[in-house]
Amino acid sequence: MSLIQRIDALLPQTQCGKCGHPGCKPYAEGIAQGEAINKCPPGGTETIAELAQLLNLAPLELDSTRGEAPAQIAFIREAECIGCTKCIQACPVDAIVGAAKLMHTVIVDECTGCDLCVAPCPVDCIDMLPLPLATVLPIVAGYASTAEERQARTTKRDRARRRFEQRNARLHREQERKLVERLARNKRPAPSEEVNSNPLQAAIERVRAQKAADIDAALKKAKINLAMSRAQLHKSLKAFGHPPTFEQQSQLIILQQQFESAEQALAALETNAPPAAIPQPHKDPALKRAKIQLAMRRAELKKAQDAMANAEQLATLGAALAAAEQALHAAEESSERPRPDLQRVEKRPIDSQLRQLKTALAYARADLSKLERQPASSAAELVEARRRLDDAQRQVDTYVSA
Fold first, then answer.
1. How far, in Å, are 139, 144, 347 from residue 150 at the CA level?
2. pLDDT for the residue numbered 95
3. Which among 35, 116, 362, 381 is least surrounded, fewest beta carbons within 10 Å?
4. How far apart, in whole angstroms, are the C-alpha atoms of residue 129 and residue 127?
5. How many angstroms separate the CA atoms of 190 and 201, rounded?
6. Quick one: CA torsion of 116, 121, 124, 128, rounded to 10 degrees?
7. Helix (H, G, I), strand (E, B) or coil at 191
8. For residue 346, what pLDDT is reported?
């Protein structure tokens, strides 16, 4: 092995870039040329000590300007993921799986905690969670004290390096394939040129094809912007209290305006686009907007009911819900799409007191089950747990029958 390879073998292979280089191997090349050995926060003091021993240098303190990199792992809040694939493209070790417009998730055993996937996420649905100490002892710098732990850490680094190299090789193959296909298209005559050798007609066909491609790209971008603005609006509605503060209300107004602008931009593009560029069936923007407004008003009313809001606020939200329903009916009447043959059924409101009683019953049942599975549980504990379960069940039965 060369000196660069031996240095690279000691680095943590997170490819995080916190050392100032685009990856671990470029930093290894820099160290081989005399760069400081204390610029790797994920490696910590143990990696610095190993590099100092390899290069016959004095150990240094970790460069404080690089920040800290505790043992962590990426976690995607899947309910908020819009399937944009930006985190998949950013992950250096292919530790995120998913597909376009579908939910993504992280492969826990392969994530190196580099946090490179956090910044590209347009809806901010990725969290970096700390790993439990018992989980990271064998693989994190500063804790590899025994031979088994050092071997486990080396195995983890080698696997991360292989995945990083395999990903780079795959991307290189895809780039070469696209280049070959592009060269082949340039050499092959266009279909219009095969039928008609008129150069002017062939040029017109190429311009039309380019315009169609531009319109398709603009439609895709507008749809992504609409999805992002919708996700941000819904996320803020869930996060803010009820009633929202003045600042929160101002932010909601801005988000609502951004969502409406994105929706209008998409509608304008679909109106001006040729029929072939618009996926069928065509959706009525006004009808879609009315449905979204109805869902938002219904969610606001339910949130206020759960928070035990006063009668005046409930009446205001109820009136807003009724207005949203009327707007939806009007949009359905004016829409060119046929109305579905469905019957609207109003859901019964959830009784908060009954829900609390059922929650207490579930906890009591879980406590008794846990004690029954533990050999060390005493008879007195089991009797008390059964008594609590009977009391909870009796309270639920009494409330339901009342």
1. 7, 5, 59
2. 94
3. 362
4. 6
5. 11
6. -20
7. helix
8. 52
In a shared domain, residues 279 and 231: yes
Query: Is-contact 101 83, C-beta < 8 A?
Result: yes
Question: Is the pLDDT assigned to residue 352 strictly greater than 60?
Answer: yes
Q: In this structure, is residue 203 part of a structural domain?
A: no
pLDDT at position 229: 80
Question: Residue for token digits 């409330």?
Answer: 399
Position 391 scores a pLDDT of 92
Q: Is the pLDDT of residue 97 over 80?
A: yes
What's the pTM value of the predicted model, to 2 decimals?
A: 0.47
Q: Which domain holds residue 267?
A: 211-334
**199-239 and 246-272 helices, crossing angle to 10°:** 160
Label residues 31-61 b or e (16+ Cβ within 10 Å = b).
Answer: bbeeeebbbbbbbbebbbbbbeeeeeeeeee
Could you check whether the bond before residue 281 is cis, i.e. omega within 30 degrees of 0?
yes
* Domain count for the chain: 3
Residue 254 DSSP label: H
Task: Verify that 269 and 382 share a domain, yes or no.
Answer: no
Distance CA 119, CA 286 (A): 34
361 and 298 inside one domain? no
Reference 90, options 33, 161, 186, 17; nearest CA is 17
Instruction: Say if 144 falls within a structural domain.
Output: no
Answer yes or no: do 289 and 258 share one domain: yes
- Asked, for residue 92, whether it belongs to a domain, the answer is no
